[in-house]
Design goal:
By secondary structure, the chain is an alpha/beta fold. Helix content is 54%, strand content 14%.
């Protein structure tokens, strides 16, 4: 049986790993926090270099490009293991310039890097319903497709290096915009004397009907903002898309104000809450 490695057991990574295990995939994992790895009940490698030496493919799901580079090149990083002909599937939302370096680092070690950011959060990840955007070598993509299909319902192969990451950032511009607009609308409804649940019901029957509101409505109703996707992460992605706007020499209108809205969440000390807690920021203005 093909062995698959997994690095990065945060909220999304753990959901993806559990999904793969439930699909009969033999996982070997590494995580900085060992207790998170122990919860999965699978084999645990001592270092990233040891892990890649033991597996055929390896999946990364990390916080940002800094974390990915650290796993790649720091002491006992992936590039110090047996990388030849291995495939690294990176589901992290990276900076579009940093991924180009990751391609080069692994190519030097005769390995393949597949830039594979995912659309969706914890619940679709646990059900294998993510959308996966993939750039990189086509042969490597075909080899890895069977594992991507266990976590993703829709897979889009975009081939050219850096394009999948750019599309993920564009998606998150829309995601953050929807969430902020919906949150502000619900607060306006409450201030106008309309019950919150009733307002959400009406929005779902009208212009507010969206995957975002369907997924986040209960969090807003209960004001339970345990994280699936944090304010810190959406802020990071909006920061990256500002760099994309500079590269393209285009103004970024909604993205600019949106970044400052989520900066308020960081200022209020709720960066590790679910990004739907932007509702609470609007409500407490």
């Amino acid at each position: 049986m093909m062995k698959i490695g997994f690095i990065g057991l945060g909220n999304l990574g753990k959901a993806m790993a559990k999904r793969l295990i439930s699909e009969g995939v033999e996982l070997i994992v590494w995580n900085r926090t060992i207790d998170k790895a122990k919860e999965l009940g699978c084999l645990i490698a001592n270092t990233p270099s040891e892990l890649i030496s033991q597996v055929d493919m390896l999946i990364l799901n990390l916080k940002d490009s800094i974390a990915v580079k650290d796993v790649l090149i720091n002491q006992n990083g992936l590039i110090y293991g047996n990388c030849e002909n291995k495939i690294v599937i990176d589901t992290t939302t990276n900076h579009f310039e940093e991924v180009l370096e990751f391609y080069s680092l692994l190519k030097e070690k005769r390995a393949y890097y597949l830039e594979s950011p995912v659309l969706g959060s914890v619940i679709p990840a646990s059900q294998g319903l993510l959308t996966v955007l993939v750039s990189g070598d086509k042969t490597a993509f075909e080899r890895a497709k069977f594992i991507l299909e266990k976590i993703g319902k829709s897979i889009f192969y975009l081939e050219k290096e850096g394009v999948a990451t750019k599309m993920k950032l564009i998606n998150n511009l829309v995601l953050g915009s929807f969430m902020a607009t919906l949150a502000e609308a619900i607060v306006f409804a409450e201030e106008s004397g309309i019950d919150k649940e009733r307002a959400i019901e009406i929005l779902l029957s009208g212009a507010g009907n969206s995957m975002v509101l369907n997924v986040k409505k209960q969090k807003i109703i209960d004001e339970d903002f345990t994280p699936h996707f944090t304010n810190a992460l959406i802020y990071k992605d909006l920061d990256y898309i500002h760099d994309l706007a500079k590269l393209l020499k285009r103004p970024l209108f909604t993205g600019s104000i949106l970044k400052e809205i989520y900066a308020t969440a960081l200022l209020k000390g709720v960066e590790n809450e679910d990004f739907s807690s932007i509702y609470k920021i609007f409500k407490n203005f």
